[in-house]
Design brief:
- With about 250 residues, the chain is an alpha/beta fold.
- Helices cover about 35% and strands about 20% of the residues.
- It contains nine helices and seven strands; from the N terminus they run ααβαβαββααβαβααβ.
- β1, α3 and β2 form a beta-alpha-beta unit.
- The chain is globular, with a radius of gyration of 17 Å.
Amino acid sequence: MKKYPKTEKYDVSWIESNWMGPNPLWLLEDLCGHMDLRPGMKVLDLGCGKGLTSVFLAKEYGVTVFANDLWISATDNLRRFEEAGVADKVFPIHAEAHALPYAEGFFDVAMSIDSYHYFGASESYFTDVFSKLVKSSGQFGIVVPGLKSEYEKGYPETLEKLWFPELFTLHSNKWWRTLWEKTGLCEITSCYDMDEPKALWQPWADWSVENFEKEFGDVGGGGDFDKKFLEADTENDIALIALSARKRI
């Protein structure tokens, strides 16, 4: 599997105590290799969960981060940011993705790791919300779970028995590229399937078998869902998709 030297600086137990899906630092580090992040930039981390990605951005790139999440309270995230020594650079915000409390053009960069598909797979979210958050020539970057290609039923045959409606937000990198590119509001700077997606996903799936339900309750198919999902993918149709872009106007 590809090496992620920046992520290797962080304690595995700290990551596993706070992750809410496949290792978000691996996903973020891969994406950041295709973006231009510089100290002092204002960055929105939308759907930040327990703030792992926000801590990483502040420490590794010296940016100021607005750590926005709906499911995790701002107070809980503030405690984590204080413990990580980044409370002067990372500001926790509790807000829903369609009701964000930011001025238009406030950010240099808007990012979302393993959450954008929950709210951004509609035709209008990029035009009406996400694009407006970033200043002219600012940047966007997301990583989402997806599929290697589009299918007539919306999913490959191998995953049919495990499929449920929320998974229809899983699409190909071409689908995501088109969703943004056709707006004319941005120039795509990268759009690709990350290497070895199942290897990136597997540690989270293994952890979930014993820990998911006591941490999050009986939601999302249960603690062994991700493991079953990966095992069922015998044709390697599952993808982790990274997309970055620069605002045109």
